[in-house]
Amino acid sequence: MHPRGLRREAVTAARNGALSGAVVYLKRGLENWRFPPPTEAVLLEQKGCLFVPRVLALRTGQTLLVRNSDPVSHNIHPTPRLNRDWNQQQPPGAPDLERRFRFAEVVIPVKCNVHSWMRSYLAVTDHPFVAVTGTDGKYAFRGLPPGAYTIAVWHEGAGEVEREVTLAPSAEVQLDLRVRSARSH
To answer: What is the CA radius of gyration of the chain?
Structure first.
């Protein structure tokens, strides 16, 4: 538990029952495509002794900035399975840490070894068709080429589900993915 009594629940649902903070991504169907990484960095901030945002999507080769905005030291420790593990202290006022991930990996848990309640998750893909659902549970992919795909949704409290979908030329598909049950944290 956070020292100010804040609780971060793993499963956050909107009023309509939609799941926020879920990673939605194309798991299969883009194997023959290559997408250059974005030039703009993404930011994972340590603020109020929490990681903000709790779930962050980025691309292979894209710069991840890690910022300590707190008046205390943190120790950022991603624990990937495919990418290089790293564990680094970041004192208050230190420059942003810059890292890149070489391999696609959904998801990479991140923790602070100083503050046990600090958790975050990184979703690293080698394509742009990844989103983190908003507080309303919504997501969108734009510019997806026609084809057959496996779309997956992952949430820290509910695991992962997959669904096959075929996108015809000039078509728009609305897909609601539902998790069967959520583990409580």
So the answer is: 17
Q: Quick check: bond before 53 cis, omega within 30? A: yes
- Position 184 in a domain: no
Q: Is residue 114 part of a domain?
A: yes
pLDDT averaged over every residue in the chain: 88
Q: Flag whether 4 is in a domain.
A: no
Number of domains in the chain: 1
Distance (Å, rounded) from C-alpha 166 to C-alpha 24? 16
Residues 6+ apart with CB under 8 A from 173: 165, 167
- From CA 53, how far away is CA 47, in angstroms rounded? 10
**Domain limits for position 150:** 12-167
Dump pLDDT digits (tens) for 53-64.
999 999 999 999
- 7 lies in a domain? no
| DSSP conformation class of 89 | E
Helices and strands of the chain, counted as H and E runs: 0, 15
- Say if CB 87 and CB 75 are below 8 A apart: yes
- Give tens-digit pLDDT for 51-107: 999 999 999 999 999 999 999 999 999 999 999 999 999 999 999 999 999 999 999
Taking the model in full, what pTM does it have?
Answer: 0.88
17 exposed, middle or buried (CB, 10 Å; 0-12, 13-18, 19+)? exposed
